[in-house]
Design goal:
Length: about 180
């Protein structure tokens, strides 16, 4: 068999809270197309945010096409979420490159977080988010997740988690959360 070794030299911009390596062992058996447009767009935007590419034309045009006038705010909220996850998180997460169809196990968990948020399942949301960041969940982190989930739901973009990890049945996503 053929093996390839790659150098793992840390760069000056290395994010120690995110494992950006393409280790085949960290990938799940799930691909983005299986989870629908909402989940795909969310993960595309999250990956781009973490890799410092949220301003890329592909990301901007994709969000504008799906979310219209809410696109800029949604991308900004994803950047905020990525920063909060990095700053408040105590564990590294594995990510695929933006545009890659395979999801890592951590990305599956991220899909579960937002699926639970859209379903208003507070217990599942806190459980998945706590595991994803490796510690207690702050109200600020919960608010930004809920805001992103509501923005997508307002544009009929539901988040789905894989059947084996799903916290709510498919299709049980309310369109709007009433805020007074």
């Amino acid at each position: 068999s053929l093996t390839t070794r790659t150098s793992m030299r840390p760069s000056a911009r290395h994010d120690h809270q995110t494992d950006r390596t393409m280790n085949p062992q960290q990938h799940s058996d799930v691909t983005l197309p299986e989870l629908g447009t909402g989940t795909g767009l969310l993960l595309f935007g999250f990956r781009a945010s973490v890799f410092g590419r949220a301003g890329c034309h592909c990301v901007q045009s994709g969000f504008t096409s799906a979310l219209g006038e809410d696109a800029d705010e949604a991308v900004s909220d994803l950047l905020t979420f990525a920063r909060l996850r990095r700053n408040e998180g105590t564990r590294k997460i594995g990510l695929s490159a933006p545009g890659h169809g395979r999801m890592t196990r951590d990305e599956v968990s991220l899909a579960c977080v937002f699926s639970a948020a859209q379903a208003w399942d507070q217990v599942a949301l806190e459980a998945h988010l706590s595991w994803l960041i490796g510690g207690p969940v702050t109200p600020k982190l919960m608010r930004i997740v809920t805001k992103i989930a509501d923005t997508f739901a307002g544009h009929s973009l539901a988040f789905y988690a894989p059947r084996s990890a799903r916290c709510v049945p498919a299709g049980d996503t309310p369109a709007f959360r009433i805020v007074s």
